[in-house]
Amino acid sequence: MKNKEFQQRQTLDQITEIKRILAAARHGMDNRMPATLLVTSAGQEEGKSLVASALAVSAARGGDNRVALLDGNWFRPAIHRFFNLDLNRSTQQLMDGELHHLVRQVEAISLDILTAPADFSTHSHTTDQINLTIKRFIEQAKITYDLTIIDSGALFPTNRFMVDPVEISSLTTGVIVVIKSGSTSRQQVKKAIKIMETTGANILGVISNHWQLPTGSQG
Ligand SMILES: Nc1ncnc2c1ncn2[C@@H]1O[C@H](COP(=O)(O)OP(=O)(O)O)[C@@H](O)[C@H]1O
Ligand SMILES: [Mg+2]
After folding, report:
1. CB of 184 closer than 6 A to ligand 1?
2. Over the stretch 117-147, which tens digit does the pLDDT of each residue have?
3. Is residue 106 in a domain?
4. Phi then psi for 106, rounded to 5 degrees?
5. Nearest 5°: phi and psi at 61?
6. Is 178 domain-assigned?
7. Cross-strand partners of 38
8. Which among 4, 40, 45 is the best mutation to test ligand 1's pocket, defined by most ligand atoms within 8 Å of the CB?
């Protein structure tokens, strides 16, 4: 596990394209501030969480922006792993709390992180309650941060426990769609984009994430 985390941190540092993607995203959002940027994908395991983390680190390292990274994939949280954090809050705490009390700051760079709740799959709540909570966090983030990056789940397959990225997409300034090259069909990606566009989302573009896993790795 430790080794995997180390590799992930290395990968974060090695994504040289990230700065360009960030610049393009900012341009696509007309350099508006505050801006909220959703990172999503059509299918699972395409690299959303890695790209969202790398974008947040890159933006925070820039230094002149107040940056936050929110884990919006409560069903399959991942952001905490990229930053060596535990899941220290319950779903109820998130539903009742204020964003600025719930975030944790990453040392060395000025980045605030909201990790997912620890008990999401066992907590009883309605989809509406969760969507309202996310909406509230996005509103609160706009007051405190210049740029808020939101990692989310995939659009497909849907399940009744997911925090729906389509719902989040229409609340944000822009959306980046990550595609793991060779994995998701064009039709699926087009369908995902169309669904989000019909809710009013501003799709900034797609990122093709190429990577080679070591032989024998499960990914
Ligand atoms: N470009 C890459 N190079 C190396 N490993 C990657 C790359 N993109 C993703 N991974 C790894 O693949 C796994 C899935 O990526 P993740 O960002 O969690 O996907 P998603 O959030 O879309 O499910 C993670 O272990 C991640 O570190
Ligand atoms: Mg993820």
Report:
1. no
2. 999 999 999 999 999 999 999 999 999 999 9
3. yes
4. -85, 130
5. -65, -30
6. yes
7. 150, 175
8. 45
